[in-house]
Amino acid sequence: MTQANSRPPTSSLGDWQHLHPLSPIVRGGLVGLGIVGYAASQLVDDVFRSAGEGESGDDGPGVSDGLGYLFDHSLVAAAVIVGFLALVGFFGWLSWRFAKFRVADGQIEYRKGWLFREHRQVPLARVQAIEISRPLLAQLTGLSQVVVQSAGGGDSHLKLAFLGAGRADEVRRELLDLAGRSDETRLDAEDRLVSDGPDGSQPATPAASRDEGREVLRVPNSRLFVATILHGGTIFLGAMAFVAGGAAIAAYGTSFSALTGAVVALPALGPIAFGVAVNRVQELLKHGNFRLAETGRSVRVQHGLTDKRTTSVPLHRIQAVEMVQPLWWRRFGWWRVRVNVAGVGSEGATGEADETTMLPVGTFDQALRVLTLLDPALSEDDLRQAALGDGTTGGWTLVSERARVFDWLSWRRAGFAVTAHSLLVRTGRLSRRVASMPHARVQSLTLEQGPWERRRRLAGVTLVSTPGPVTVAARHLDVDVATALLHDEAARAREARRLTRARSSGGDVLVSDGDRIPRTGCTAYGTTGQLVAPEHPATEPAKPADGIPHDPVARRDDERTHQ
Amino acid sequence: MPSQPDPSAVTLRGGELAWRPVSPALRTVRLITLFVWLGPFLIGFVLAALFVSPWFGIGAGVVAALLAWGTWLIVRQVSAISWIELDEEIVIRKGRLWRSLVSIPYGRLQYIDVESGPLMRSRGIASCEFHTASPASGGTLPGLPLEEAEALRGRLAARGEAQRAGL
C-alpha cells in the first residue's frame, strides 16, 4: 500500500516494542507445568512417606532419595528451587528481552532469539489476514496472540505471542489499518486465503461467488465407480489373483484342489486388498455426486457421497492445471483434471485433495471444457495437441535424443511448448499427463542437472508453483535448450508480472491475468537452443503486434504456427 | 550493484557473469561442525583399538574415511555455491554432482529470513533464506557475511516491494 509507505506510522507500532512479559512463561507453559507438577508430586510423596515413617533415611536407596535429601536439608532445597526459578526467570527474561516487533517501511518486523537470532519481516501488502487466537493457557492468563497470515502459507505466518488481550486487539486493528484492510477481509479470509490485488484491492464481492452459478457438468456416479475401480492398486490385485489362480492350476491340475490352492493363496493378499479397498472407497465417497458450476469469477465444486462439501475456488487463485489419463482409462477416453490453488494444499494431508480436483473423471471434451474454464487463455487446439499428440507438431519441443535412455517409452511425446500465455508440459506415453502454468504465475524457476544427465548433456527446468498436486517440469532437455527455456520463461514471467502490475496500479484488477496477454502460437525450439526471448518478435513468426487486445474474441482466433 | 548484468547470460556452468561466491568462512563453519560430530567417534574408535581390540581399527578407518570424504565434499560444495543479483531476480547456483540453479524474482519474495547460529556468528556469517509463496523454491544462500546478509535482505525487500506482483 502506497499510503502505508508514505505515511509514517501514526500508530504506536513504529518503534520496537516487546511482547507481554508473561509470554515466555505462557509459551513454555505446558513444559513448565509438567516439571512443576512432577516435582510437587515427588515432594508430596516424600512428605507423606517421611511423615509415616517418622524418621527419614531408613528408606533404603531409592529414586526419591535425592529429593528426600533435599527435603531433609531445607536450606539446600530452597537454594535449588530459588536457583531453578532464577534460571527459568533469567531465560524467560532473555527471551522476552530479545523478542520485539515493530512496523516500519511498510513491513511488520519481528526479531527474536538471543543465541539463535531470527528476524522475520512481512510486508504489509502481503498480509492476508490478521487473527487473534487464545490457547487455553493464554486464556487463563488473559493473553492473546496475534497471528499475521501472509501469502506464503503456514510457515510464513508471523505470530506475536503473547500480548495482553486489549493490546492484541489494538495491534490487530492498527495492523489492519496499516495494511489497508477492513474487518470484512478477515471474516472473508476463509474464502480468499490469498487475495489477488498486490495493493490489497478486493476482487469480487463475496456474494458473487456465493450464488448458485451456472452448472458446467456433473459426473455420473456410475462412471465414477468404474473409474475408481480402474486403478493401479486394483489392477495389481486382479493380476496377482490371476497369477495365483494360474499357478494353482498349473500345480494341482484343473481339479478341485486348484480351487483350494487359490483359496489358500487369497488370504496372503488380504491386507493389501483391504488397503486398496479402503483407499478406493474413500476416493468414491469423496468424489461422489461431483458437480462443477461456474459463477463467473470462480468455480463452485460440490462433491461427497456421504459428507457433502461445497467449495468455491476463485479463478485467480488457480496457479497451475493438469489433465491426467491413467493407462487404465484410455479405453474409455477418460481424464482427470487437477489444479494448484494458492493457499490450499500447504496445510497437511486432510482436505488437501478436496479443493484441488476439478474433475475426478470425465470425457476428453469435458476435461477440455473445464480446463478452458479454469484458464480461459488456454486454447483447445493446444490442449488437444498436448493431450493426444506427439512429435514436434504444434510447436512442441521434445526431450533430447540423448534422453531416449531415460524416456525410452515416451521420448516421442515428452516435451514442452510455450504459448504467449503459459507453458505446457506433456509427459507419459501410456499414462498421459499434461500440465500447464501461466507465465504470470511462476513463483521461481529452477534448472537442474544430475550426474547422469550431465554425462548426456541434459538438464531439466521446473516452474515452481505454490504447493499442490501439479508440478510443471520439463525434464531431460538438451542443456542448451533448457538454458534457453529458462531465460525465455524468466523473460516471459517478467513481462507478465509487469503487465499485472501495470494493470493493478491502473485500478483494474478484475480481469484474470491471462485475459489481456496476447496469445501467439507455440514457439518452436530448435534443438540447437536458438531460442528467442519474447522481446524480439522478429524471429518469432506469427506473433501479433505488441499491444493489448481488449476484444476477447480476438484472443480466440489468433493464428498459430505449426512447425 | 553490478551494472546491468544480462539475464540471458545465466547458465548452469556460470558463464561470464560476475557470480559472487559465498564467504569462505562457511567452509570453516561446516568443517568444524563435521569434526565436532565425527571427531569423538574417531577418538573413541582409536582408543578402543588401542586398549580393547585391534578390530576397532576398522571403525576408526571408516570414520576417518567419512571425515576425509566429508571434508572433500564440503570444500567442493561450498566452492560451488554462487549467486548474482540481476535486475529482477536473484539467481543462486549450487552443487557439483547435482547441479541446480534457482532464479527467484524479487516480485515474488514473500519474506526473507536471515539466520545465524553462534558458530556462524563467531565467523561473522549468516544464512539468507528466500521465501516465495511456494515452499519448494528452495532459495537458501548460506554463508554471507553478516552485514552483507543484512544489506541484501534490506535491498531485496525494497526491490520486492517495488516489483511486487500478486499471486
Automatic annotation (TrEMBL), chain A:
Stretches assigned to coiled coil: none
Transmembrane region(s): 75-94, 224-252, 258-278
Regions of compositional bias (Basic and acidic residues) in chain numbering: 548-563
Region (Disordered): 189-213, 525-563
Keyword Acetylation among UniProt keywords: no
Name of the protein in question: Putative membrane protein
Pfam families in the record: bPH_2
Keywords on record: Membrane, Transmembrane, Transmembrane helix
From TrEMBL, chain B:
TM ranges: 29-49, 55-75
Residue ranges annotated for the YdbS-like PH domain, each copy included: 86-155
KW Transmembrane (keyword) present: yes
Assigned keywords, A-Z: Membrane, Transmembrane, Transmembrane helix
Superkingdom classification of source: Bacteria
A Pfam family matched in the record: bPH_2
Protein name: YdbS-like PH domain-containing protein
